[in-house]
Amino acid sequence: MKNVKNADYYQIDNRIPEICQLKGIEVLSAKLAWEKYNWTKKYFLKKPKHGYFIWVKKQPQLPIFTCITIANKNIKQELQNLLVVEKNLKIKIQGTCNALKRNLAGVHQAKGKIILKQGSTLQYRHIHSWGEKDIVEPNYEFFLEKKAKLDYSYKVFSPPKKLKMKTLITLLEGSSANLNIVGKFSQTKTEFEETLILKEKGASGIIKLRLAGNKNSEITAYSKVVAQSESKGHLDCQGLLMNKDSKISLIPELICKNKKAQITHEASIGKISEEALNYLRMRGLKEKEAINLIINGFLEN
Question: What residue spans define the domains of the chain?
Answer without folding.
Answer: 4-273
